[in-house]
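Task 17 of the worksheet. Students: predict the tertiary structure of the chain below and write it out as structure tokens. Keep your answer in the requested format; marks are given for formatting as well as content.
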Amino acid sequence: MASSNGLASLGVEGAQAAAHALSLPAEAYGNDPQVELMWAMKAYNHAEVYFNLISSVDPKFLKLTKSDDKIHSAFMESFSDLNLEVLDPDLLKSPEAKERWRPFCNQFEGVVEDFNYGTLLRLDCKKDYTEENTIFATRIQFFAIEIARNRGGYNDVVYNAKPKQQKENKQS
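Model answer:
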């Protein structure tokens, strides 16, 4: 997963302006396409960094937040039935699912910074971020699911695939 431009293409002043714009409350904007583009770029960059991280570091040893244990415990209590290997978008986005997720997410307000920011989440943990394999979720949903995937060994496939690809490239 490589980006050819991203925030770096904005330059220092552009990146500072983007950071300032993204720190303002959503009510300060209508449906401004520039702001939506900046949010999309920020979410994409977060996804790229995370995928590179689980590709290079054994996911079982990753700590994503200061509250990983609390997030994981609450998640397992509320969503132990969720298939972590391949997520069903309806279990994240349907009206019923939103009602189920809301109390879980809200308990992390003030605990996890930007807990309700939009973040990209892979549906199938064995695959990279692609249009077909990505859903928009809140940051706390991302943390909860990815912490559980990391601790459960679901992201090992990504971690173990990277060295194999590098070995194949060296042999070519």
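Marker's comment: Strands lie at 118-122, 134-138. The chain has one domain: 6-171.
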